């Protein structure tokens, strides 16, 4: 035990492992309790008085349990109450709103911890852009904005009366709904009982992931490619799923119940589906894993290499990614437990009749949990190796391979091969790579020693950054200091990234810099606007661009190395107009580039257009000041422009748009609110 | 019956008064009218056409229907397809339009029958939904009006726009948001809407002057005694079963309508809406279940909590106001609105009118949507007598359709494709669309219009849309028709300022 006065390392909080409704179908409620191990943190208190009870508000999360539909607010749970601490939290109880708050807190903090561990840094929520009238930098359309630190995500466990939960990027909030169930199968849930989305581990983790991803790559909300919105959904579902599997207790019960057939390849996939069952559309991405046949047996779905070409709808597409990564997980798991299986069955693969030996159950469950954790970590780390916009599944696969190759020199479990294989079987490839071999898939390393003139300048700047920011522990300080490094503090002598870039553009290195980053910096304002790029933001003497993030990542590898990276993302945008030729072919109207306006206004005569973004993710090695990777999406990539236009043209939904202008509801609640409007138990009228 | 009183043609007069249905059908025998039938008379709430004020339409109706030797307009039958304002507005007692008409019978769908248990249930559900909608839209507009329009954030503007849209759907039920009009609270705690009053009034008029109301069931024929010789009227809808709830096409390959856009499928009483409806319809009494998820004392009323220091410092903090969720639970009003709209549309009385002599069929489906259309194919009618009886099904009726009153003003989900328009194979097919420009997004649906133009070979007549003037059809040769066909078409079509009239033989 530590010295008296030191805070404990963790706080134990009980929660449900499965949705309380689902557990009934497995007939074993014993398996439904899970104790989450949450990092200890100082919580805020109800008042400033000494001994005041705590409220569920900490460094990352602020839970305010207002229920507007019922006209009430539920008292904030006091997690520091000795009675609560001593029992590992409140007893799981569907009828107690304070327990709901506890569960949401536990799962959110677990998810956040997993991300921080994989990414090697503290998480930031996506910043709020606020008007900054005092700013010296004026944007051309007159509204100066500056990013403002959002410390905590606002969480509302009982916000809506719907079978829905969503993350709102504007309000930096999670809203959870509840509803009366009327299930397809009476056995699953008693009719008239209330189902709370805030009691589902998977839904909480899913929504938290949306928020986290929004903080890392802000532009992934844009639906520019069939893969982009699908990625947000699929990635969030994967995190929920893999995190769920990382609890061995959850699996113990299920594995014990299989009573023998260790060749049952499907168990994990089937479980994955069933976790999602009561949660409606949250589970529907996992329909890609398999289904029940007419005899009621669960069949694994065989992948089809034409899937990626043919499945364009975001849901189905997301399902592909989930299925691919899940398959990789199962493959590695099978390899891992092969030896155990051989020992347990004497090589036959068939166990003697009766219950499985508890040690065996333990080994299998532990192996699955370990594998799930590792796969989760791989998937999360890959985010740093992704471009800042227009992500495709192929890009993500390359990011996974590259990130893993950087960290783990010898892949003895075969994770990388498993990933590639699973993607390949679904036809997901990366355009432009010569083959699916690992070396070809990895992002090309920026050639050592080239362009040293540029990269040294930048890297020196970054070293200073690391020196200043590296020792800060408070997230607000990290945020503010990073902003200062981007802007350049007038009092400080330090240069500021934007001034550094200014220097580079005004030097002979300009062309090289533009090539590496994929950004465009025309010589003067006129030339710039003629190309559809705004002038003067961040630097008054350059084309506008935005710094997505500068982040320090410190990761330790299994073989004891420490990787110190700095990840910088840069972005620009331009307005691209299109015209249609007589035979119906669309092409870029190259005389009609336009600067995108904040209010969406477009120049007269432009009727078919997109807002196009380009930029790059730069990964620097802090130790030897070299640029490792430049993962870019060039702003002048005409093929990508056409692709985006063709995808977005005519993909507006209809019936809501008939009465509700596309702007009204969407703008009010953000892009995620309507995603999960399917409600469990409500079947579609198929076969009508 | 004498041979010269057997119907050999029907003149269909579509009024051009704006966005709404009003059709006067004159059944002719040897160029003499032997029977008159009016199908609907309504208009979108608070709108009108500058070119054709409603009074002109009324004047024309009176003039058409008043016999030479009398002074009371006489209508043999009146159809009210369903309870939407743009179909029944002018039946409302306040208008007094039809008070001095002599009406034979009023035909409505079984869904209006006060003696039918299922109908009563459906209507009570719908009224609850309508009331919930009004409450929601009131709350939305109340909350958004707290900030003056100029200083509203993007989000507040969007919420206000959303509230307006919800209110707009309320207009189908005659609900005026600003005036709070449209819903009346009766002494027995039951609510009634203006649309309901309109239906009740017209039924009352018919009872008073003629044969009362007939509630028609699908799969039946309108009794021959009600009709002139030589005419059969088949009742195709409203459907009796769960298809009543299906207003949107199924996904993917099962797509039954035109267009490739994806829909979500809603159901009125589904899980999502139950709690919402409860909250909206509750009168706040203690013993009523207003859908609260926990026991009564589990939460602190918001009013009371607003005095708490912690709540004031956090949720009520002025810098954090942008993170409030006071209204988010109302977003589902959108779902409710769409669902109500679809549900009521599917209660439309659907009639196929046949001129026995020629076999021509006129299809008037009201605003029936996907579920209704699909249900038509379940039915079979037995026609003829003695040794010449035979069975007729919906497909045959569609094959013989020469006039199609386009359902729901040309929206995407109200004209079925494979089992609908694609079965209307008659070379003389003509389509009528009663709508006015810029009334709603997506009306007229572009892909549907293309399909209609293809099927009708250009003979699509729109009542009050400046982008689709009927005058053009008679002035310029329609490219898809031959010169002879166009000439024939022009002979049958009369274009007037107040109406267009097409003669079907």
List descriptors.
heterodimer, A: 688 residues, alpha+beta, five-stranded antiparallel beta sheet, 22 helices, globular, disordered C terminus, B: 505 residues, alpha/beta, eight-stranded mixed beta sheet, six-stranded mixed beta sheet, 14 helices, elongated
Strand content of chain B: 15-25%
Question: Percentage of helical residues of chain A?
Answer: 25-40%
Overall shape of chain A? globular
Largest sheet of chain B: 8 strands, mixed
Specify the helix fraction band of chain B.
25-40%
In total, the number of strands of chain B is: 19
Strand content of chain A: 15-25%
Question: Rounded to an integer, what's the Rg of chain B over CA atoms?
Answer: 25 Å
User: Residue-averaged pLDDT of chain B, rounded?
Assistant: 84
Describe what this molecule looks like in 3D.
The complex is a heterodimer of chains A (688) and B (505). Chain A is α+β, with helices and mostly antiparallel strands and 688 residues long. Chain A has helices at residues 20-26, 82-86, 97-119, 201-216, 226-245, 248-258, 267-275, 281-284, 307-310, 314-345, 358-381, 393-407, 415-425, 438-441, 452-469, 475-487, 497-505, 510-517, 525-530, 638-648, 655-659, 662-669, and strands at 10-16, 33-39, 61-63, 66-67, 72-73, 128-131, 145-148, 153-160, 165-168, 173-180, 194-196, 290-292, 298-300, 546-556, 562-580, 586-588, 609-621, 626-633. In chain A, the strands form six sheets. In chain A, strands 3, 8, 9, 10 and 11 form a five-stranded mixed beta sheet that branches. In chain A, α3 (97-119) crosses α11 (358-381) and α10 (314-345) runs antiparallel to α11 (358-381). Chain A starts with 9 loop residues before the first strand and ends in a 19-residue tail after the last helix. The relative contact order of chain A is 0.10. Chain B has 505 residues and is of the alpha/beta class. Chain B has helices at 54-65, 85-88, 117-144, 154-170, 194-209, 271-281, 302-305, 309-313, 332-345, 370-376, 394-399, 446-456, 470-475, 483-492, and strands at 9-15, 22-29, 32-41, 74-79, 102-109, 183-185, 191-193, 212-216, 231-237, 300-301, 350-355, 360-364, 380-383, 390-393, 401-405, 430-436, 460-464, 493-495, 499-504. In chain B, the strands form four sheets. In chain B, strands 8-5-4-3-2-1-19-18 form an eight-stranded mixed beta sheet. The interface between A and B is large, with 72 and 76 residues.
């Amino acid at each position: 035990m530590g010295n008296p006065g030191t805070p404990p390392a963790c706080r134990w909080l009980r929660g449900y492992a499965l949705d309380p409704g689902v557990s009934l179908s497995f007939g074993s409620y014993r398996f439904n309790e899970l104790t989450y191990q949450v990092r200890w943190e100082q919580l805020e208190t109800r008042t400033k008085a000494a001994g005041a009870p705590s409220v569920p508000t900490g460094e990352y999360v602020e839970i305010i349990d207002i229920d507007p539909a019922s006209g009430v607010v539920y008292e904030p749970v006091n997690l520091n109450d000795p009675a609560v601490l001593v029992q590992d939290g409140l007893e799981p109880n569907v009828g107690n709103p304070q327990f709901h708050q506890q569960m949401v807190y536990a799962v959110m903090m677990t998810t956040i911890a997993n991300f921080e561990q994989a990414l090697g840094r503290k998480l930031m929520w996506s910043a709020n852009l606020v008007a900054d009238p005092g700013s010296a930098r004026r944007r051309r359309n007159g509204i100066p904005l500056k990013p403002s630190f959002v410390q905590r995500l606002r969480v509302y466990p009982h916000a809506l009366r719907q079978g829905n939960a969503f993350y709102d990027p504007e309000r930096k909030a999670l809203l959870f709904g509840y509803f009366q169930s009327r299930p397809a199968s009476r056995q699953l849930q008693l009719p008239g009982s209330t189902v709370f989305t805030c009691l589902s581990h998977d839904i909480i983790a899913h929504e938290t992931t949306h928020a986290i991803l929004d903080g890392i790559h802000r532009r992934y909300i844009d639906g520019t490619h069939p893969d982009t919105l699908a990625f947000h959904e699929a990635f969030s579902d994967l995190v929920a799923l893999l995190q769920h599997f990382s609890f061995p207790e959850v699996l113990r019960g299920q594995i014990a119940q299989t009573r023998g057939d260790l060749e049952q390849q499907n168990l994990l996939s089937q479980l994955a589906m069933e976790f999602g069952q009561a949660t409606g559309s949250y589970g529907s991405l996992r329909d890609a894993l398999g289904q029940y046949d007419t005899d009621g047996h669960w069949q694994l779905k065989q992948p089809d290499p034409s899937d990626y070409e043919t499945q364009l709808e975001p849901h189905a597409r997301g399902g592909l990614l989930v299925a691919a990564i899940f398959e990789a997980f199962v493959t590695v798991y099978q390899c891992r437990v092969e030896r155990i299986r051989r020992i347990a069955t004497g090589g036959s693969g068939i166990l003697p009749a009766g219950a499985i030996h508890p040690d065996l159950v333990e080994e299998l469950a532990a192996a699955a949990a370990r594998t799930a954790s590792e796969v989760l970590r791989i998937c999360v780390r890959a985010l740093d190796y992704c471009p800042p916009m227009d992500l495709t599944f192929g890009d993500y696969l390359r990011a996974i391979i590259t990130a893993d190759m950087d960290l783990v020199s010898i892949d003895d479990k075969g994770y990388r091969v498993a990933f590639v294989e699973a993607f390949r079987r679904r036809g997901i490839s990366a355009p432009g790579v010569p083959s699916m071999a690992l070396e070809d898939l990895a992002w090309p390393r920026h050639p050592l020693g080239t362009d040293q003139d540029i990269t040294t300048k930048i890297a020196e700047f970054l070293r200073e950054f690391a020196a200043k920011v590296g020792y800060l522990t408070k997230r607000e300080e990290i945020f503010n200091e990073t902003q200062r490094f981007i802007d350049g503090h007038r009092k400080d002598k330090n240069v500021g990234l934007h001034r550094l870039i200014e220097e580079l553009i005004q030097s002979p290195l300009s062309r090289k810099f533009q090539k590496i980053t994929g950004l465009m910096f025309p010589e003067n304002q006129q030339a710039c606007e003629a190309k559809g790029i705004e002038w003067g933001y961040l630097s008054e003497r350059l084309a506008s661009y935005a710094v997505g993030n500068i982040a320090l990542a410190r990761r330790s590898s299994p073989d004891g190395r420490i990787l110190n990276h700095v990840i910088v993302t840069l972005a620009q945008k331009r307005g691209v107009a299109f015209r249609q030729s007589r035979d119906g072919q669309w092409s870029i109207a190259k005389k009609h580039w336009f600067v995108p306006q904040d209010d969406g206004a477009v120049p007269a005569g432009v009727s078919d257009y997109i807002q196009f973004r380009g930029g790059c993710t730069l990964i620097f090695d802090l130790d030897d000041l070299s640029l490792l990777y430049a993962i870019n999406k060039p702003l002048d990539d005409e093929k990508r422009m056409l692709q985006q236009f063709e995808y977005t043209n005519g993909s507006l939904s209809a019936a809501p748009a008939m009465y509700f202008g596309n702007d009204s509801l969407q703008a009010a609640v953000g892009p995620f609110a309507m995603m999960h409007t399917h409600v469990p138990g409500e079947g579609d009228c198929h076969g009508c | 019956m004498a041979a010269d009183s057997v119907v050999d043609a029907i003149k269909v007069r579509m009024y051009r008064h704006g966005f709404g249905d009003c059709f006067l059908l004159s059944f002719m025998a040897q160029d003499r009218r032997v029977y008159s039938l009016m199908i609907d008379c309504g208009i979108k709430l608070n709108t009108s056409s500058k070119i054709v004020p409603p009074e002109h339409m009324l004047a024309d109706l009176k003039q058409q229907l008043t016999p030479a030797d009398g002074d009371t307009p006489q209508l043999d039958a009146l159809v009210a397809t369903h309870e939407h304002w743009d179909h029944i507005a002018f039946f409302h007692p306040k208008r007094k339009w039809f008070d001095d008409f002599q009406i034979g019978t009023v035909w409505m769908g079984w869904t209006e029958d006060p003696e039918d248990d299922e109908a009563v249930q459906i209507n009570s559900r719908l009224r609850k939904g309508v009331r919930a909608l009004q409450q929601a839209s009131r709350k939305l507009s109340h909350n958004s009006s707290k900030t003056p329009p100029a200083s509203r954030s993007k989000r507040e503007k969007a919420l206000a726009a959303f509230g307006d849209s919800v209110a707009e759907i309320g207009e189908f039920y005659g609900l005026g948001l600003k005036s709070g009009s449209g819903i009346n609270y009766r002494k027995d705690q039951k609510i009634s809407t203006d649309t309901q009053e309109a239906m009740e009034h017209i039924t009352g008029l018919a009872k008073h002057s003629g044969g009362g109301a007939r509630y028609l069931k699908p799969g039946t024929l309108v009794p021959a005694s009600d009709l002139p010789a030589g005419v059969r009227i088949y009742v195709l809808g409203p459907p009796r079963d769960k298809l009543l709830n299906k207003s949107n096409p199924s996904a993917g390959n099962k797509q039954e309508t035109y267009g490739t856009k994806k829909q979500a499928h809603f159901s009125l009483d589904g899980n999502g809406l139950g709690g919402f409806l409860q909250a909206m319809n509750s009168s706040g009494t203690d013993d009523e279940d207003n859908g609260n998820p926990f026991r009564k004392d589990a939460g602190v009323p918001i009013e009371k909590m607003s005095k708490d220091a912690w709540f004031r410092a956090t949720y009520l903090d002025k810098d954090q106001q942008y993170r409030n969720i006071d209204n988010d639970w109302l977003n589902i009003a959108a779902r409710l609105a769409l669902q109500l709209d679809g549900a009521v549309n599917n209660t439309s009385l659907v009639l196929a009118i046949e001129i026995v002599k020629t076999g021509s069929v006129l299809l008037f489906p009201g605003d029936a949507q996907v579920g209704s259309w699909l249900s038509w194919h379940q039915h079979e009618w037995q026609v003829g007598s003695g040794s010449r009886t035979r069975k007729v099904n919906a497909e045959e009726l569609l094959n013989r359709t020469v006039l199609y009153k386009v359902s729901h003003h040309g929206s995407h989900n109200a004209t079925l494709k494979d089992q609908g328009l694609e079965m209307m194979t008659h070379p003389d097919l003509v389509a009528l669309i009663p709508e006015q420009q810029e009334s709603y997004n997506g009306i007229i649906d572009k892909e549907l219009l293309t399909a209609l133009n293809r099927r009708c070979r250009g003979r699509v007549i729109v009542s009050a849309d400046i982008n689709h003037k009927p005058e053009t059809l008679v002035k310029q040769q329609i490219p898809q028709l031959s010169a002879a066909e166009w000439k024939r078409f022009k002979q049958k079509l009369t274009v007037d300022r107040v109406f267009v009239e097409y003669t079907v033989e």
